[in-house]
Amino acid sequence: MIKTKAALAAGLAAAVLTAPALAAETLDAVKSRGELVCGVSTGLPGFSSPDDAGNWTGIDVDVCRAVAAAVLGDADAVKFVPLTAKERFTALQSGEIDVLSRNTTWTHTRDTSLGLNFAGVNYYDGQGFLVKKDLGVASATELDGASVCIQAGTTTELNLADYFRFKGMDYSPVVFDTSDQTVQGFASGRCDVLTSDQSQLYGLRTKLDNPDSAVVLPEVISKEPLGPVVRQGDDEWFNIVKWTLFAQVNAEELGVTSENVEDMKTSDNPAVKRLVGTDGDMGEKLGLSADWAAMVVAQVGNYGEMFERNVGETTPLNISRGLNALWSDGGIQYAPPIR
Predict the structure, then answer these.
(1) Solute-binding protein family 3/N-terminal domain: from which residue to which, for each copy (predicted)?
(2) Domains in the chain, ordered, with CATH?
(3) Which helix (H) or strand (E) holds 89?
């Protein structure tokens, strides 16, 4: 076990050391191959999961589609690589993928010691608990002595330990490698409780034979800002990924949608003109075409469209905007202005 951990640590260190050299080549590599390589989950409804035809959908998937639209002019020019929580950072550090968009929490440790940069937040989340209704539990404070299904390699492990220690409660962890395995363990009775980000719990609940048999408890025990990640050492690529997301948030605020973006090119609003590329040199500053943001909105939609299509109240997940509403609508989604 000690030798295995040492080998893993050495491999991770080597990946971090080579990250800057790989990062500097990202944009050229994407343009050269004509395809963006995007790391996603192994299957989480609403965020990144393949349909029966093998087509990937979800809000994390759409982040990568938006980047492809900005850089290549084609939102479909993306190769999706499914990764477990354990695999995701090494895949990015080693250059196997160009961007990681996989319900990944932005934390101090990840941002400062892994050679990575988080390029914004596409979903503000928090950790919660999923229990079967027949357990008769209405609050997380009633979970003393429970067995808890959890995915390895995630922030949820530490959060869970902190919460139970603080509350003076005991629990028995049942650890799995993938989210699918955790929900299967929960469904088969391997554990009393499934813990993860609340968004993930809503997605995993849809995989149960009877989703109505389980309920997400009200407690939120952590802050989980989720967003796309790139390698450190390439400011140009970092700027492209973060400003693509910012463009979608700004577009929603300005009322620019996939349906009206072409008409908005004749707008007299200076902020709209800069967004759609009819004024200023915003695209040139990123090394992209003048209409980069217009292509993002036309092909993928603004942030609100992306949210509602994948996880909103008309989807099986039925998630309200909450914190993910625009700052002007009572939420905390806020993007720097394009000017």
Answers:
(1) 35-263
(2) 126-223 (3.40.190.10)
(3) helix 88-93
> pLDDT value at position 155?
87
3-class DSSP state of 76: coil
10 Å CB burial of residue 5 (0-12, 13-18, 19+) is exposed
Which residue's structure tokens are 């191959």? 33
Contact (CB, 8 A) for 119 and 228: yes
In the three-class reduction of DSSP (H, G, I as helix; E, B as strand; rest coil), residue 299 is classed as helix
Q: What is the DSSP letter of 141?
A: G
| CA–CA distance, 181 with 111 (Å, rounded to integer) | 28
CB 139 within 8 A of CB 219: yes
> For 289-337, how does the pLDDT look when each residue is reduced to its tens digit (9 = 90+)?
999 999 999 999 999 999 999 999 999 999 999 999 999 999 999 999 9
pLDDT at residue 179 in the model: 86
C-alpha–C-alpha distance, residues 97 and 42, integer Å: 15
CB atoms within 10 A of CB 255: 12
For residue 150, the tally of other CB atoms under 10 A from its CB is: 22
- Reduced to 3 states (helix: H, G, I; strand: E, B; else coil), residue 139 is coil
